[in-house]
Design goal:
Radius of gyration: 28 Å
Number of strands: 20
Number of domains: 3
Distance between the termini: 24 Å
Strand order of the largest sheet: 2-3-1-4
Strand content: 15-25%
Helix content: 40-55%
Length: 528
């Protein structure tokens, strides 16, 4: 069933991705037919066709390189490096006015924008899932050794401004989010205005950069904090200390050792700290069905893998289950989506650390879609992301660069001003050169996108753990009580238990997205 699910998700991603490309190219195709241009080929994806069929005087094809599509129009600026050699010499075709060329070029982005409007109307009606983590700037967890902690920030603080700019969300996609303001900051120190217990103050954090290899994207600025979110248990390992203490799916952890927590990362961090110190009991204050109670647990270290640290056996967490549906208007959605691309370009040409290496391409888009489709309410998020993607596709294609639609418009304007077209050989060299640069750029971005995807999948893969020979439940419970009263716990008793293999805490990598934070799991297989 799992394999079938992945196959279905892959098919959904491919179909939706091709829909976005197909509608964009359909705009060019219909406009070209309307203005009387010769259309030789309508292709989805680049490269040598793996399928093609000629209907009338047009060949329809599916390529092998999933980076886009094209409509072959020999009367426009030719791109033989992508589209192949034209069947009809341009000299034998009638001239096309600059206005007709502009209309054909504009039609592609226009159709992408219209598709974005269609998706936006649907989102307006069915709603976009949102929860408390989407609209909070309250800090949920602070890395004890990170820049935020050194600056004096604490869990529960509400961030008001960063470098004098107000924030209203924690994570992207908006430009007024905590994460975006941090990664686009330029000073040596980041000024963070916050509210604590009704009092406002300002902290100055020196940003941290995660170490990366030469095959990885350069890490952006971080201050090692996460947003506040409900810390609800999603899965408990059988026979683990958490299970023996009676922890269940849906239990909300509201305090650790008597101190209120604002994120599940507080528990994860406490477990991590036990790896380099004496293992001490942890008291979790839980809320279940409106009742609140304490449970004391002692993290234990499994026999395998040998590099595992002591853990409680809470396999995975979930964020707030109080999901609400927002109904932003189509105009608001289009405005926000356009603002994202303008903010990205603004950051690219500013003094911030964001460069072309941080941009995403087709592989990233496919990865996002595949993740969203696997979410419980993912189809609504897919619709919302499709609005953003289509607006970006429309605006990016309007850039005045050869090969792109904006480049065709620019060349047509030059032709109109000169009252004659650019020389065919010069035009061919310009188009070929920029086509090579475009393909090289796509490959460059795809390399980093694929690397990120591979490393993420590798980190999330299941880690089998070998268990020792189990004794009866009564004896295990007795051993648990003995462990709690023993500091440090005796090795024979500790070896009675088995729990999850440890991973590097997510806060030490790039900050997780709100989707990853809400659904993060430590995947482990248990053998009683």
């Amino acid at each position: 069933m799992i394999i079938l699910r992945y196959i279905l998700v892959a098919l959904e991603v491919v179909l939706l991705f091709n829909l976005l490309i197909g509608v964009h190219e359909l705009g060019h195709f219909l406009a070209a037919r309307w203005r009387g241009l010769k259309v030789e080929r309508f292709a989805i994806w680049f490269g040598k066709p793996i399928w093609k069929k000629k209907i009338g005087d047009v060949e329809y094809a599916l390529g092998t390189i999933p980076f886009g599509g094209y409509v072959s129009l020999p009367q426009m600026a030719t791109m033989e490096s992508i589209e192949g050699k034209s069947e009809t010499p341009v000299e034998q075709l009638p001239n096309v006015s600059p206005l007709d060329k502009i209309i054909v070029a504009v039609a592609g982005p226009l159709f992408s924008l219209l598709l974005a409007v269609v998706f936006a109307v649907v989102v307006w009606q069915v709603g976009k899932p949102t929860n408390e983590a989407d609209n909070t700037t309250t800090i949920g967890w602070v890395d004890p050794t990170g820049p935020a902690a050194k600056a004096g920030l604490l869990p529960g603080d509400t961030i008001l401004e960063i470098d004098g700019k107000p924030v209203h969300h924690f994570a992207p996609t908006s430009s007024d989010s905590v994460t975006w303001r941090i990664v686009t900051s330029t000073g040596t120190n980041i000024a963070i205005k916050y509210r604590r217990a009704g009092q406002e103050a300002t902290a100055y954090a020196t940003p941290f950069h995660r170490k990366t290899g030469w095959l990885e994207r350069k890490a952006l600025r971080q201050i090692l904090i996460t947003s506040a979110n409900q810390a609800s248990i999603f899965e408990v390992a059988t026979n683990s200390p958490a299970a023996l203490a009676g922890l269940k799916t849906g239990d909300e952890v509201v305090a650790l050792n008597g101190e209120k927590i604002y994120s599940f990362m507080a528990v994860v961090s406490a477990e991590d700290a036990l790896s380099n110190s004496v293992v001490k009991p942890l008291t979790l204050t839980l809320r279940r069905n409106g009742e609140q109670f304490d449970r004391t647990l002692l993290a234990v270290k499994p026999l395998q893998p040998t590099n595992s640290g002591p853990v409680l056996g809470i396999v995975s967490w979930q964020g707030s289950t109080n999901i609400l549906l927002a109904h932003p208007s189509p105009v608001e959605q289009i405005k926000v989506s356009a603002g994202q691309i303008f903010n990205t370009f603004g950051a690219l040409f500013s003094k911030s650390e964001i460069g072309v290496q941080q941009l995403g391409g087709a592989v990233m888009i496919i990865r996002v879609y595949s993740n969203l489709f696997q979410d419980e309410d993912g189809w609504r998020r897919v619709l919302w992301f499709s609005v953003i993607l289509n607006v970006n596709l429309a605006l990016l294609n309007m850039l005045p660069l050869p090969v792109l639609d904006g480049g065709h418009i620019l060349l047509s304007l030059i032709e109109w001003l000169r009252r004659r077209p650019v020389h065919a050989k010069i035009l061919e060299k310009i188009q070929t050169g920029f086509a090579a640069l475009l393909i090289g750029f796509m490959v460059y971005i795809a390399f980093f996108d694929a690397g990120d995807w591979f490393r993420s999948a590798k980190a999330d893969r299941e880690v089998p753990v070998e268990s020792c020979k189990w004794i009866s439940r009564d004896d295990r419970e007795a051993a648990q009580k003995k462990l709690i009263s023993t500091s440090p716990p005796s090795r024979p008793a500790r070896e009675l238990f088995i729990s999850a293999a440890r991973q590097k805490p997510p806060a030490l990598r790039d900050p997780p997205s709100r989707y990853e934070t809400n659904r993060r799991r430590r995947r482990t297989r248990y053998k009683p």
